[in-house]
Amino acid sequence: MSNNYHRLLKRQLRKIDLDGDTLDLIAPFLHQVDEAYKAFDSDLQQVENVLEKSSQELFQANQQLKNSVESITGQLSKVAGNIKDVIFEMDLNGNWSYLNPAWRKLTGYKVNDCLGKPYYQFLKDDQGNAFKSLIDLKKPNFKTISKSFRSQIITGEYKWLDFSIKVIMTEEGHIEGYIGTIVDITKIKETELALINAKEKESMANKAKDEFLTTMSHEIRTPLNAVIGISHLLLLENPKTEQLENLSTLKHSSEHLLCLVNDILDFNKIASGQLELEERDFSLNQVLNGLRSIFHNTAKEKDIRLLIKKDTSLPKTFIGDSTRLSQILTNLVSNAIKFTEEGKVMVDIEVLKVEADFYVLEFVISDTGIGIPEDKKDKIFLSFAQANSDTTRKYGGTGLGLAICKRLLEIMDSDLELESEVGKGSTFSFKLKLQKSGMTDYQEDNNAFDARSIHDQDNLKGARILVAEDNKVNIMVIEKFLSKWQVDFDIAENGLIALNKALENTYDMILMDLQMPVMNGFEASKAIRESNNPLNKVMPIYALSASTGMDIKDQLGEYGIDGLICKPFNPTELFKTLTSILQQKYIQ
Predict the structure, then answer these.
(1) Is residue 403 within 8 Å of residue 383, measured between CB atoms?
(2) DSSP code for 241
(3) What angle do CA 43, 47, 53 make, to 5 degrees?
(4) Cross-referenced CDD domains, in alphabetical order (predicted)?
């Protein structure tokens, strides 16, 4: 037996104990088996080497992974420890299973003392009771919820918390726990509450301001109504020549005071965003004629020319807010005349563009007055501002006129432009897009009134009007005008008398003061509307009032009042208004 055979082959040959001849005979076969054993050992050694190497690599990889996990876990712990908001995990029973360090900073409770215990033991309501109703874990029909509440912490003080919780689901769709955050929103909530409180205070202040303006408006307008009305009446009663100048001055001064009151009230409406524009047919000719009649004598007294020039292609009527347009033009022309000592003031209206249903008009008001310095041009559009400090002393005025004009034009989607040179005059201009009117020229002419002969017209002759008014001077004034217009009228000194008269008689119209003793105008109007007489349900009822508060117009409809006629009234305008109301009544 060869000594070079593999050890396993030698062991097998010794066991079978073959003789020499036999061994020699099978020697070639034994050599092949020996080679096979040696090849197997070689392959086994190689496999062992590979396995050993792989085992080492696997160990190293596992160690690296372990180090990475420890590193990431440490980083996450640092992150969680430095997050100001509370991060939590909760089991199915609502017990804390994880809380980051922010929990102790927020509530004062140690994290380890809270883990494994119900959340509501540590979240208290305003009375210090456990917040068990915060979430319903018996019927968790939510995926994510968020609630804000005020909670008592360990020190006894209160904090506003924003509590958000999300359901953790298994792959099979079962709930295995909850995760969420708790954020301290105390400062945000305090700011929010402070803003709400400030808003309420602002609202109360605005209400007080509006009530003050309403009261002051009523108190100022009531005597003004008497002054203006009586001045009109005296001028109609053929005064002596030496009295005419005094009466004209009285009328002019009272109307000027009314303009100042109106400016302040209008500015308040614009500033609060409660000014609404009207959209109705109006005659541009009447607006311009009114402008001419207002300022003709004023310009003549200063020996300056007032010229009104209009494009020949202008139609007579448009749809828009003629009252606000007239207010803008009146303010601009008044300023132009006020600051012009010689020369002229011109109002020029031109058609810039004609569209299917609209005209684009340009209004230009120019003067040869004192002009405005370049560095003062922006200032004059500010509220209560004048170009120079001595302007008010020399020329008067509140400084509201141009501010109101600019704001009104902005509401009308326009802008007030200015060109001026000191000593040479100023030019104010604006563009307006006005809708064409369907009113015929005949209707426009028919609605025109001649103020000088208005008291000779019989438009209101025989009309039955009930006037509810408690101020004796105002009663005297309106009685005289209604008598001149041949109106059949009754006077009621309070709302209750007005109600009884409306129940006993039939009227074409009621003029109702709003602030009266016993029963005010609102209550009286509502009672008249609710009476059994069917005529009282459709009869025009108009408030004739010196009150012009921000909410007056909104209240009118609630009490069945059709509109508002403001005191002091211009007799000509009152005549027009009453005529228009009665004409609409009979047309309907």
Answers:
(1) yes
(2) H
(3) 145
(4) HATPase_EvgS-ArcB-TorS-like (cd16922), HisKA (cd00082), PAS (cd00130), REC_hyHK_CKI1_RcsC-like (cd17546)
Q: Which of 115-124, 163-172, 245-254, 538-547 has the lowest mean pLDDT?
A: 245-254
**Do residues 200 and 223 touch, judged by C-beta distance below 8 A?**
no
Q: Give the whole-angstrom CA distance, residue 246 versus residue 253.
A: 10
Check if the beta carbon of residue 145 is closer than 8 Å to that of residue 135: yes
In which band, very low, low, confident or very high, does the pLDDT at 82 lie, cut at 50, 70 and 90? low
Q: Which residue type, as a one-letter code, is found at position 472?
A: K
pTM of the entire predicted model: 0.51
Per CATH, which fold does 83-190 belong to?
Beta-Lactamase (3.30.450)
Pull the structure tokens for residue 273. Answer: 């965003």
- pLDDT computed for residue 28 by the predictor: 81
Sign of CA dihedral 5, 7, 12, 15: positive
> For every residue of 120-141, which 3-state class applies, written as one string?
HHCCECCCCCECHHHCCCCCCC
Residue 568: asked if its preceding bond is cis (omega within 30°), the reply is yes
Amino acid making up residue 252:
H
First-to-last alpha carbon distance for the chain, in angstroms, is 142
* CA nearest neighbour of 367 among 292, 420, 317: 420
72: which residues sit within 8 A by CB, 6+ positions away? none
Q: Which residues contact 431 (CB under 8 A, 6 or more apart)?
A: 352, 360, 361, 362, 363, 414
Token representation of residue 452: 């000088």
pLDDT tens-digit map of 252-304: 667 667 766 776 666 666 766 667 777 888 888 888 887 887 788 888 888 99
The most confident of 14-23, 278-287, 513-522, by mean pLDDT = 513-522
Alpha carbon dihedral 117, 119, 123, 129, in 10-degree steps, equals -70
Q: Measured between alpha carbons, how far is residue 409 from residues 311, 321, 324, 403, 487 in Å?
A: 21, 11, 9, 10, 40
Cβ atoms of residues 263 and 275 within 8 Å = no
Residues 6+ apart with CB under 8 A from 40: none
Q: What are the domain boundaries of the chain?
A: 83-190, 197-269, 276-436, 464-586
Which residues on adjacent β-strands are paired with residue 105?
none
* CA–CA separation, 396 and 257 (whole Å): 12
Instruction: Tell me the CATH class for 464-586.
Output: alpha beta
Please give the class, per CATH, of domain 197-269.
mainly alpha
Residue range 276-436, CATH number = 3.30.565.10
- d(C-alpha 354, C-alpha 132), whole Å: 72
CA distance 577 to 482: 13
Backbone angles phi, psi at 124, to 5 degrees: -110, 150
Among all chains, which residue has been given the structure tokens 């002091």? Answer: 568
Please report which confidence band the pLDDT of residue 133 belongs to, taking 50, 70 and 90 as the band edges: confident
- From the list 519, 566, 518, the residue with the least C-alpha distance to 543 is 566
